[in-house]
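Chapter summary example.
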Amino acid sequence: MPIPYSLLNVGEPDCDAGLAWNDPRRKLYPHHAEFWPDEIPEHVCFEMQAIELRKQKQKDWLRFFFRFRWLSTAIAFCRDPRWPKPIFENPMNLQKRPDDTKRR
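The structure predicted for these 104 residues follows.
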């Protein structure tokens, strides 16, 4: 890709005529900022990284969900009918059992 250098005026004393292309005294051409932008601040890098991680996590979740979506149907038909236990059988719940306290 050709780089658009600015036109040099030979007649002006402050022109760059005769200087090497990499001489530090040479003026920067107009599109310098486009080809060599300033460094990105650290907090912006962190924000961009967080956004990328969020996107990757979402893609991973969708990939998992669509790859194993058949499991929900399989679990519905093949699960143990005693699971999950009703609320009154949950030991962490403080509700009392219904009237019939005998175990079958």
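To summarize the output: The CA atoms of residues 6 and 30 lie 7 Å apart.
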